[in-house]
């Protein structure tokens, strides 16, 4: 929920700048981007802290947690690799392929969730991430960065924040 809301908002703010709707200074944008990441780390720490004593979980829940944590770790490594290579080569295209791979990993994780839980909405989320990955890939090829950032922001809100909220609501963590 937190990642989808925060990073979705970040993408939408970047899109408003690219589309000429807003104008923010470079300093503001740097503080904004850092602030988004700090807010996410704080939210993650709170969730980990609240969940630290939960030990009795079904094997399916543990498996799904492992898949999503594995996707998160793989995402961190991919971010490092794509970021480093993009910086070394000066290629924006290489950096733009990083979110495409993230969408594929998220599609995989949600597909596993569907296979374990057999709920159609989980398959829909997986399919949404796979379709988003293809759409982003097509936009990378066209060089349409503004539409790319808009699509990514909307996907984060619809395919990450909304399912995150639904899962937290089901677990009784939000109303």
Structural class: mainly alpha
**Parts with pLDDT < 50 across at least 5 consecutive residues:** none
Mean pLDDT: 92
Total number of beta strands: 0
Spatial shape: globular
Helix and strand pattern: HHHHHH
Radius of gyration: 17 Å
The end-to-end distance, rounded to whole angstroms, is: 13 Å
Number of helices: 6
Strand count, sense and barrel status of the largest sheet are: none
Give the strand content. under 5%
Helix content: over 70%
Features:
6 helices, 0% strand, single chain, 175 residues, mainly alpha, globular
Structural summary, described in words:
The two termini are 13 Å apart. The mean pLDDT is 92. The protein has 6 helices and no strands. It is globular, with a radius of gyration of 17 Å. Helix 1 (2-18) runs antiparallel to helix 6 (145-170), helix 3 runs antiparallel to helix 4 (92-117) and helix 5 (120-142) packs antiparallel against helix 6 (145-170). The protein is mainly alpha-helical and 175 residues long. 85% of the residues lie in helices and 0% in strands.
């Amino acid at each position: 929920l937190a990642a989808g809301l925060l990073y979705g908002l970040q993408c939408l703010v970047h899109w408003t700048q690219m589309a000429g709707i807003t104008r923010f200074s470079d300093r503001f944008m740097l503080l904004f981007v850092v602030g988004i990441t700090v807010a996410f780390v704080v939210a993650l720490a709170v969730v980990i802290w609240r969940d630290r004593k939960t030990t009795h979980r079904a094997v399916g829940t543990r498996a799904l947690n492992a898949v999503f944590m594995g996707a998160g770790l793989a995402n961190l490594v991919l971010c490092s690799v794509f970021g480093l290579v993009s910086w070394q080569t000066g290629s924006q295209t290489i950096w733009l392929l990083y979110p495409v791979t993230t969408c594929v990993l998220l599609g995989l994780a949600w597909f596993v969730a569907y296979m374990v839980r057999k709920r159609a909405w989980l398959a829909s989320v997986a399919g949404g991430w796979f379709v988003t990955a293809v759409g982003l890939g097509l936009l990378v090829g066209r060089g349409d960065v503004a539409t790319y950032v808009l699509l990514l922001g909307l996907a984060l809100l619809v395919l990450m924040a909304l399912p995150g909220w639904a899962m937290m609501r089901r677990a009784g963590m939000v109303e």
